[in-house]
Design brief:
Layout: H1 17-22, E1 25-27, E2 30-32, H2 34-46, H3 53-65, H4 72-90, H5 96-128, H6 132-157, H7 161-188, H8 193-203, H9 207-217, H10 219-233, H11 236-246, H12 259-272, H13 280-304, H14 308-313, H15 316-340
Length: 341
């Protein structure tokens, strides 16, 4: 579950075109800059039917690497809530019976992959000489649900801001790669909708990128991926409790992803309400369409927060840890899914 916490620094170059983009202008009594106009145009495009999650992420990345995000604090605050509402909206397009079946198929993969990733992360991180906090944050982000897991586990660890930034920066970069790479791999391997959805849920960190990649593959893949990923996200709670015990942290507050229960209620409403409320059947497609638009905008905001400075500030060793864990969980789960599902 995507949680954009990275900080975007303003571009250092303010000469030529950059100075023009940053220069305040006035129109109809309102002050604006050209880069704000660029941001607005990109955002408006993300609201149209021509935009897709990968395109939105790409536009955000282009913005971040060129003119910069002029509304960093706003997008940072808005991304988390927008993702939550989008996930709840997707529940209006899902069937509870199919979701239960998908959850049963994914639970064994979930348990094995979570604990296997945490175990492997500990030893690889120790070999790389990284701090225990950074290792645990990246491992939890890889094992459970990316930025949301890091945001929940960080306060339990009493992690420093720079440790949180390293963990978040690592998983967000890998998320961006996965969103573009996974659908072509799935098609090349002729994966079924069910197989691809399950693979996304296990091998991609954040819910936003999981849903984005699965949506690009097909509706059934989207249903499987969302259900399994959200069930996986509930593991934040026991892992947070275990973290507090292992790191001997007392009196810490554990963040519970309550929005997942909103997704479940929406799914139950979509499954059972139409039999009693005829108008409920028409509500589902509207809510799902709004949810997909919300997800597309979410990924645009996330991409806009990944400037070159954010990426480079992480350092090489955390990326090595993140990539190794990601490669192991991706290839292992892919092999098992292709041969067992």
């Amino acid at each position: 579950m995507e949680h954009a916490e990275t900080t975007l620094d303003e571009p250092e170059t303010t000469t030529g075109i950059f100075r023009s983009l940053h220069t305040p202008r006035e129109l109809f009594g309102r002050t604006f800059t050209l880069r704000q106009v660029v941001f607005a145009l990109f955002l408006i495009f993300c609201l149209t039917p021509w935009a897709s999650p990968p395109i939105a992420l790409a536009l955000g990345l282009v913005l971040a690497q060129t003119v910069g995000n002029p509304f960093t604090s706003h997008t940072k605050a808005f991304t988390h809530k927008l993702l939550q509402f989008s996930v709840i909206g997707l529940g209006f397009g899902m069937n509870a019976h199919a979701a239960v079946q998908a959850g049963k198929e994914g639970i064994l993969f979930t348990v094995v992959s979570i604990f296997g990733t945490l175990f492997l992360g500990y030893f690889v991180g120790k070999w790389l000489g990284l701090s225990k906090h950074v290792v645990h944050l990246i491992s939890c982000g890889t094992a459970i649900c990316g930025g949301s897991a890091i945001a929940a586990i960080g306060p339990v660890l009493r992690a420093k801001d720079e440790e949180m930034s390293v963990g978040l920066g690592t998983v967000f970069v890998l998320n961006a790669i996965a969103l573009f790479a996974f659908p072509p791999i799935g098609h090349a391997l002729h994966m079924s909708q069910n197989q691809f959805g399950l693979w996304c849920a296990i091998a991609i960190h954040d819910t936003s990128s999981v849903v984005g990649a699965a949506a690009a593959y097909g509706n059934q893949a989207l249903e499987v991926a969302t259900t399994v990923k959200l069930a996986r996200a509930l593991w934040i709670i026991p892992v947070a409790i275990g973290t507090a015990m292992i790191f001997k942290q007392k009196g810490v507050k554990i963040s519970i992803p309550y929005f997942i229960f909103g997704f479940i209620l929406a799914m139950l409403f979509n499954t059972f309400a139409p039999a009693y409320i005829p108008a409920a059947k028409a509500l589902g497609p509207v809510m799902v369409n709004l949810a997909k638009i919300g997800l597309t905008v979410t990924l645009f905001f996330i991409g806009a927060g990944l400037s070159a400075k954010v990426v480079s500030s992480v350092g090489i060793r955390p990326y090595v840890l993140g990539v190794l864990l990601w490669v192991v969980i991706s290839t292992t789960s892919l092999y098992v899914i292709l041969h067992a599902v």
